[in-house]
Amino acid sequence: MARVRKKRRRPDKPGQSPTDGGRAPAAVDGALPPPPTPPAPRFPRPTLSIALPGSILSNAQSSELRTYLAGQISRAAAIFRVDEVVVFGERDAAAASVGPGGGRRRSSVPVPEAEDLLALLLTYLETPQYLRKHLFPLNPALRLAGLLNPLAATHHLPYDEAFRFREGVVVPPPGGGDSSGGGQPVPSSLVDVGLRRWASLPSPVASGTRVTVDFGAAFTAHEAIPGRHLPAVVVDRSAPRDTPAAGWPAGRYWGYTVRRAATLSAVFEECSYDGGYDLAVGTSEHGAESPADVARLAAAGTYAHAVVVLGGVAGLEFSVQGDPRLEERGVEAAGGAPDGPRVADLFDAYVNVCPTQGSNTIRTEEALLIALARLTPALGL
User: For a tag on the chain, would you pick the N or C end, based on fewer CB atoms within 10 A?
Assistant: First the structure.
């Protein structure tokens, strides 16, 4: 059952007494109170996830625009070192497309199809170029991938860069074929890692599997020349970001994973981290809090996994509609009863990241850049 998060008690602001009800402190001699101090950067760095509805692609009017929009989301995730992108569904999202004058407009692509397309394009862009031939067969949905700006993420290593970690795909042994007689992938210990030589694992893994390999701290450029295979071991994908390495004392950003969630509540219920997200931030023009409040929350306690959730065409409040888990709990956009649960109660902070906007609408891809630019410093990231 979806939980309604109990908001943390925010620490008192500087100069604020515990009994002033959370109101802003009075200025002393006309001076403004000092801004909150963001939490100091930590190592290993806490994870940052973003969640947004796949229905945002259904509002784009052509295949080219849908593809480019996915590229903007992917670029923003890489720039701000996002570790996970969650694409969630909205049951009645097709009804949220609004045309000129507030009239309804037919979605340019079915919503379920838009969610699949967004997840596919995000995964494609995150994958290093030398691995795409192994992981992405010919697909009409990727026919416009050439329009996308390169991600140029720090885990997309060129063939001549020697770094102890690399992404790779297990390839069948020479003459072994792509699958066994039963149609199962052939186990292999050879990995294409984008170098002139394959990596060799100590034990076989199913071919076609994407892995993160470690060559060891002593790996150097001269070892990447043609010759015998390079010995390596499979490590967890988080190892590069959590391990100091030459030139990267605070770890190296290693891309994002993509997860699908059927509804907004599933974003939290199916969290891939043990213990779930311990700091959840919702973004909305109706949010009553600011990034400064997020900074106070982050500084008040040690969090390990943060998530920033954005809405679609009709805003995050619309995402509650049609979510059976949230309907069971009576969660509504504004709360049916005076003291009933609201969508804001799903989060530790419900933030308006652009309270002085000069446009009546902010597109999700624009809101994502604004939100990450304002919230990552507040989170100490």
Answer: N
Q: What letter would DSSP give residue 127? A: S
Spatial contact of 5 and 280, defined as CB atoms under 8 Å apart: yes
Q: What's the length of the chain?
A: 381
For 18-66, give the DSSP string. Answer: TTSTTPPPPPBTTBPPPPPPPPPP-SSPPEEEEEEEGGGGGG-SSHHHH
Amino acid letter for position 11:
P
Tens of pLDDT, residue by residue, the chain (381 residues): 455 555 554 444 334 444 444 444 444 455 555 666 666 667 788 999 999 999 999 888 899 999 999 999 999 999 999 999 999 998 754 444 444 444 444 445 566 689 999 999 999 999 999 999 999 999 999 999 998 999 999 999 998 888 999 999 999 988 766 655 555 778 889 999 998 889 999 999 999 999 999 998 878 766 666 667 889 999 999 999 999 888 888 899 999 999 999 999 999 999 999 999 999 999 998 888 888 889 888 887 789 999 999 998 888 888 888 788 888 888 876 544 445 568 888 999 999 999 888 988 889 999 999 999 999 999 988
* d(C-alpha 304, C-alpha 271), whole Å: 13
Angle of CA points 119, 120, 125, to nearest 5°: 100
Question: Is residue 206 within a helix (H) or strand (E), and if so which, with residue range?
Answer: strand 199-206
Indicate the pTM of the whole model: 0.83
Do residues 338 and 329 lie in contact, with contact meaning Cβ atoms separated by under 8 Å? Answer: no
* Phi, psi (degrees; rounded to nearest 5) at 86: -105, 125
Which one-letter amino acid corresponds to residue 361?
Answer: T
Q: What is the largest CA-CA distance in the chain?
A: 82
Distance (Å, rounded) from C-alpha 44 to C-alpha 66? Answer: 35
Residue 73, C-beta contacts closer than 8 angstroms, at least 6 positions apart? 52, 85, 118, 122, 365, 368
Where do runs of H (alpha helix) occur along the chain? Answer: 63-79, 111-126, 129-135, 239-242, 264-269, 291-300, 324-328, 364-378
Query: Which helix or strand (DSSP H or E) is residue 309 part of?
Result: strand 305-309
Distance CA 216, CA 221 (A): 13
Report how far residue 309's alpha carbon sits from residue 311's, in angstroms, rounded to the nearest whole number: 7
